[in-house]
Amino acid sequence: MLRRLAAISLAICVMFAALHAGSARRPRYGGTLRVEMGAPVSALDPSVAAVNSEEAAAKQQIDALIYERSKPSAMWGLTGPFRISEWQPGKFLSLIANNDYHEGRPFVDAIEIQMGRTAHDRLVDIELNKIDFAEIPPEQARRAAERSIRVSASRPDELLSIVFVAGSPVAEDARVREAIARSVDRTSLVNFILQKEGDATGSLLPQWSSGTAFLFSTAADPARAKELLQQIPPSQKIVLGYDSGDSLEQNVAERIVVNAREAGISVAIQPIQQTSDAANAAGGAEKIDARLVRWSMPSPRPLEALMKLQTDLIAFGNADPGLLSGRATSKEIYDREQVLLDGYRVVPLVWLPHVFALSSRVRDWQAPEPGQTWALADVWLEGDTQ
Amino acid sequence: MTFRSKLFWIFTLALVLSVGLVAAGVTIVTRRAFDDLNRHHSDALVAQFNKEIDRRKLDVAHRVEGVAEEEGTVRMATTLALPNADISRYVDDANGVSKSHQLDVLDFVSSDGSIISSAEWHARFGYKLDWVTKPENWVARGAFWMKVDTQEGP
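ok -> structure tokens follow
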């Protein structure tokens, strides 16, 4: 009797497994993936530097598709998952699948990349089914989803923060910097400007990576900001710079002005023409006291990410507290975050995710982890067969 | 002094006095006439300005009524009346509505006076407009003047 029951159970299990396997979708080869990018990429040569960080980020995505990047960039060969079939600098790039790619041929036959498209155009094109894939600003994610656009978001891995420029006479007083830091209402930034996409933060590493972000306060304290201001003589306006081409940074800067004004601090905003020039990045060319800075995590590992951020902050004039050893504990990483945040030279505001809009035919897309590029070689298209 | 000299001086004095009197009289009369004309002109301008202001007040009041009766606004009001309503989704609405109704200044304000969306100062959401919650019949009062804060200042 028991043997019969066991045999029947086994048969039922096999039947369900077979049914599931039959109904599961198998990847298909073929089709052209249509992509749109915001930044125009003017040169594919890895030795040619990008004009700004936006172009550098776009170039990195294209590099990952055409180059085999296991060696240093000077030795990269055009043996990546795709090969170039048409190239119009700054406008259009057409790629075809590399059948000889050592990790296996990509599923799609070709990728067509249109460059220099605004966020609005990208959203309209994906809604009209003219394209299959585009990165969209995080603040547009909710509205895109409400318009029935398929949206995929990475874990929040881009930090938006205020960085005070070293040598600025107005911002040299730590109490002024602390007053501004305490006046900012980060929750409103996330809820209203970012439309609930992202996390308010007081830490230099996201909660999902370090596990200690919750220990850093994100609450606004305008009363304390007012107290601090009473201790110092009235100063000139603090000039806060933001990237002139970034509407999110502009909205955040305008909100900081409102928050600061309520606390009695006079802040003016100034758009900055973004270049890759290091002196300008540090605020040298512009007469600014602080600027909004977006910083992408290079790795999901907290120590690696924090050491890279520390190096970038030193470029802004922060003191160098030295490198942590590769075996640093969570407590040591947390302590180093505290050291970097002491003095309020850097004021973390929000962690932003990267958000992507996808057409309904794109399958097996996975949002990239920090340091990774778009895995377009792994996606396949529903309805397009070999 | 000879008689001829006396006669000459008397005539000269009489002539100067009469010319002076006539000139002064003409000046006074002309000035009064110009003052009257200016006053009439100013009164007419003030009346025209007040009329234009009243017309603009009515125009703005009608536009605001139009905004309030719009389907989108009514939907926003009914949605926000629900418990745990999310006001953040309406933060950009004032901008589009103000453009479509040609209003430079437009704020959507919740029942507690906090700004939901502001056309003239987008970043000011969440802060309160205290005058809105004062116990006064705003509808009956109609359009009125007030100083408005913007990003560039009051």
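DSSP finds four helices and two strands in chain B.
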